[in-house]
User: Fold this.
Amino acid sequence: MARTCFRIALLSLAVLLPAEGFAAHSSDRVQFARDIYVEPGDTTGDLVCLACSIHVRGRTTGDVVTVAGSIVLEGAQVAGDAVAVGGSLRLQGASRIGGDAVSIIGGVHRDSEASVGGDFVSLGRPLWFLLIVILPFALFAAFIALIVWLIQKLRQPAQPYPGRVPTARG
Assistant:
């Protein structure tokens, strides 16, 4: 399990680095907000996709990583790991992953013919995303709203008591 976490950390680091420069002179593909398609008979290196999905029908010699997108393997051969963060991982037909298959905050669908050479890890559904990411932001926003309300309340002038009418003496 520690080895899987280490691989996930390395793959995440690869996503955070300016991967476009690394992929300039190789068969690696890096996309942002544009799906990646690998057709039957095609061979690629690493595939990295941010805010998009990866569809593989051919073969990859490296890892397949997507953040905020899905991975669909249709009879594909992946030599490395397949990691989907915030999206689903779908292995259809006789797809084969040589390394680990990891899905974080997303669903995993695997046909009976599909195989994974390493670990098969699925860390939760969208409920985990709500608990880990959205809930702290919501609590922080509620705390800020409370502070703003208190400041506004303290800045208002004191209201006279409604049962007593002020009189003018003079």
